[in-house]
Amino acid sequence: MGTEVLPWPFLVLAVVMALASSSLLYRWYPNSLIGPRRLSAGYGALWMVCAASAAYITFAPPNPPDSSHYPYWSAFWFTFCFLSFFCAAGTAMVGAPLVFFLSQRGAGTVQVILAASVPVSLCAAALITTGSPMAPMSFWQKAAFFVPFHAFAALCLAVAAGMPWSGRTERHGT
Fold first, then answer.
1. How far is CA 108 from CA 32, 60, 68, 73, 126, in A?
2. Confidence at residue 173, expressed as pLDDT on a 0 to 100 scale
3. Is 144 exposed, middle or buried (0-12, 13-18, 19+ CB in 10 A)?
């Protein structure tokens, strides 16, 4: 019962962070190029990325458990809430402000947002490597996980938010 109850605060906090960040961004950028519906679609795409990643991590482990009593759904739910929390925190604090800033400056294209996700991924890997003595993975092993995950999340956020593939950004009505 512990894993079924424990993730709820992570998921609630993720939603609160996304809402708080969105309201602040629309206050700081009143003439935003990204409408609330598009930003909501971007966050929805991020939660789908988290669900797909949690399913892959949970249901396709490299060494599947021998027991038929392995709690797959509990593990999936916990992994989904955990990934959603960190994905929403990163998007609320770094991703969405960066997208708003770049789109306001006319540089908010999918390619620029994907390129900006790589240094963010490397910084996250460096912070986790220096701050976490529990995990025995090296910086490069963590970077090998973070860079593709962040790139895919950034791609989903940019596409769902309606960012153009190339050229200068233009104002979207929604």
1. 12, 35, 48, 38, 26
2. 47
3. middle
